[in-house]
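Researcher: Here's the sequence for the chain we discussed earlier.
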Amino acid sequence: MRLIELRLKNLNSLKGEWLIDFTDPAFISEGIFAITGHTGAGKTTILDAICLALYSQTPRLGDITGASNEMMTQGTGECSAEVVIEIGGKHYRCFWYQHRAHKKPKGKLASIIHEISDVETGDILEDAKSKTAPFIKELIGMDFSQFTRSIMLAQGGFAAFLKSDTWERAAILEKITGTDIYAQISKNVFEKKRDKA
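Model: Thanks. This is the structure I predict for it:
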């Protein structure tokens, strides 16, 4: 999976609309980059926005529901997170949105919209709240827990990854590096050898 673009609106300290274009040469030319800034500048909110768009939850707050939304910037009536990802040369748009009644800051929270679509055709591939996270898990090959421990590593997440048991770390690293295919080959060879014995 490769991040192509992130858009977010009114999430925590990042009031207004924001765009990060990961196809910018500054991101492509460097193999690794860091998000830095003062406390409250919005570093973790960027990571939260990616998680919201993909899984409709964040490492800090868990699942965001229609009853409570601590992610929406205070004094605003709507918030959203949208990420475009590339998998196997195909682009997918993952969109998460919630608003208050009449988009007023004191309005009652409306239901969350969470959908995954094909960027090229615009077809919505999944939009049922109970099915979007499983759809993303199938698409990316990682559930929310694996994704946050391996890709995001937000505020203390790296320590949690290091404290994971050996099997769990191995499975995550296989997914990240794409070496899970070698584990499958090894298993197949073992089974064939066993069957011939």
